[in-house]
Write a structure and sequence with these properties.
By secondary structure, this protein is α+β, with helices and mostly antiparallel strands. The protein contains five helices and ten strands. Strands 1, 2, 3, 4, 5, 6, 7, 8, 9 and 10 form a ten-stranded mixed beta sheet that branches. Helix 2 packs across helix 5.
């Protein structure tokens, strides 16, 4: 059998490497940090904002229809997103379809001596019936309706991606969030790394606990996803 020319072999190797190496790197880049209150926390170098990205994962015996009912309701957000003290809806599409977006302003009540942070965010929600999951991308944006005030808060930036999945054969739900943030202002990297895991831990735990509350009606769009 005639050997392939060296040039062709090198090109093939380069193509194969371009496919495999990023996948290998992506699989290895998350580092386990801790497990607290059932939430498993990982860390890696941030892609866009700040120095570190955090990933939180929680599984709980709450049906997905109740989790989604709380998750997609903007009025419920202060009840589960950690440290949200105030919010204002700027623009919202009808949230009864399978994909929609909203724009809003929110303020986080930060612990002393850190000044409060505020954000202008756009959330894009999408239902994936074939995969029995719901995703949401929450990205910092600019909006002339909410310019930086320079008064109560420091305008910060954050990107978060949620994946909420119905586990088959049981009424259990898995939630994953990946978040990057740039708090701006004078906040040491050491303080961010020590306090950073608090946000995914409390946010995911609060969401599950709120969904487990009596009187929460399930979202009909995801009923039957555990089957």
């Amino acid at each position: 059998m005639k050997a392939l020319p060296t040039t062709v072999s090198l090109i093939s190797l380069a193509i194969l490497s371009s496919i495999l190496l990023p996948a290998i790197a992506a699989a290895e880049e998350w580092k386990f940090i801790e497990q607290r209150d059932g939430v498993v926390i990982y860390e890696r170098k941030a892609d866009k904002l700040g120095n570190h990205a955090l990933r939180g994962v929680l599984e709980s015996d709450v049906p997905i229809e109740k989790v989604i009912s709380i998750f997609v309701d903007p009025d419920e957000r202060p009840n589960w997103v950690y440290r949200v003290a105030e919010q204002e809806m700027l623009e919202a599409e009808d949230n009864q379809g399978d994909i929609w977006s909203e724009r809003y302003w929110t303020r986080l009540d930060m612990p002393f001596p850190v000044s409060d942070r505020d954000y202008v965010l756009m959330s894009l929600y999408e239902f994936h019936p074939d995969d029995k999951k719901v995703t949401a991308s929450v990205q910092s944006i600019t909006d002339p309706r909410k310019p930086q005030s320079g008064g109560c808060c420091v305008r910060a930036e954050s990107n978060a991606n949620y994946t909420i999945t119905a586990l088959p054969g049981q009424e259990r739900t898995r939630i994953e969030v990946i978040v990057e943030s740039d708090l701006k202002g004078r906040v040491s990297d050491g303080l961010i790394r020590r306090a950073g895991p608090d946000w995914p831990v409390h946010t995911l735990k609060n969401l599950m606990e709120r969904a487990r509350s009596n009187g929460v009606k399930g979202d009909h769009r995801v009923q039957g996803w555990h089957q």
